[in-house]
């Protein structure tokens, strides 16, 4: 389209090597844009996954990110092999080397996904056991939720005296953290939980992969929605 050509001229003039598109692209759309613009194109989901991968600190967090990445990559295997089209007249030809490699890649990804899901199922079972044990403690659980970068970790640190990483950047927290907090007005304590931040139109790969983390919110007695007062929305 005209806009695509216009952007392509800007990309060429400024020698841009990576273009980020703030929406979800199909593999074909991503391939076509890369051909038109002659640079790497990352869509919204791909960017979020890359940020999550750089933020994951715990084994559980890394497992969840890898599962999401593999689910995303699997749908883009054909795009990765489009260079074979010129060699054999189209990726849809039956029996070509590209098709064989794609099938092998899919099997490898599927096998890894099965192993990751089994490991995450063990995490879910462990978390359920921990939640069951926490019900025996006479302290209610309060979960801090809200959009990413809204200030949840900063509030968590101020209330608990903890040193959870709190920075002015998206997805600084991926792994839930819990601390006991004394509440003078109720002459007792609560368990405060810092959780992964929300993002509008969260990619489906992340919703499924981060089930173990998101379930921590479901087990809370009280959910506190933290909002950034200066945000326009």
From TrEMBL:
Coiled coil: none annotated. GO terms for cellular component: cytoplasm. PROSITE patterns: G_HFLX (PS51705). The lineage of its organism: unclassified sequences, metagenomes, ecological metagenomes. Keywords: GTP-binding, Magnesium, Metal-binding, Nucleotide-binding. It comes from marine metagenome. Transmembrane segments: none annotated. It holds the Pfam family GTP-bdg_M. Residues 140-233 form the Hflx-type G domain. One of its GO terms (molecular function) is metal ion binding. The keyword GTP-binding applies. This is Hflx-type G domain-containing protein. InterPro entries: G_HFLX_dom, GTP-bd, GTP-bd_M, GTPase_HflX, GTPase_HflX_N, GTPase_HflX_N_sf, P-loop_NTPase. The keyword ATP-binding does not apply.
């Amino acid at each position: 389209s005209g806009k695509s050509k216009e952007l392509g001229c800007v990309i060429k003039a400024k020698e841009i090597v990576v273009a980020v598109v703030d929406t979800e692209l199909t593999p074909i759309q991503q391939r076509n844009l890369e051909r038109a613009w002659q640079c790497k194109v990352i869509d919204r989901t791909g960017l979020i996954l890359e940020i999550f991968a750089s933020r994951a600190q715990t084994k559980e967090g890394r497992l969840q990110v890898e599962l999401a990445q593999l689910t995303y990559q699997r749908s883009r295997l054909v795009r990765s092999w489009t260079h074979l089209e010129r060699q054999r007249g189209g990726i849809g030809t039956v029996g070509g080397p590209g098709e064989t490699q794609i099938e092998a890649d899919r099997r490898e990804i599927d096998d890894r996904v099965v192993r990751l899901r089994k490991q995450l199922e063990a995490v879910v079972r462990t978390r359920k056991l921990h939640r069951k044990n926490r019900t025996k403690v006479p302290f209610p659980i309060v979960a801090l939720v809200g959009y990413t970068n809204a200030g949840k970790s900063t509030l968590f640190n101020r209330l608990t005296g903890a040193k959870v990483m709190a920075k002015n950047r998206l997805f600084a927290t991926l792994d839930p953290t819990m601390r006991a907090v004394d509440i003078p007005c109720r002459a007792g304590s609560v368990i405060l939980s810092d959780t992964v931040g929300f993002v509008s139109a969260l990619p489906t790969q992340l919703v499924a992969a981060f089930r173990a983390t998101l379930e921590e919110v479901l087990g809370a007695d009280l959910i506190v929605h933290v909002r950034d007062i200066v945000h326009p929305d």
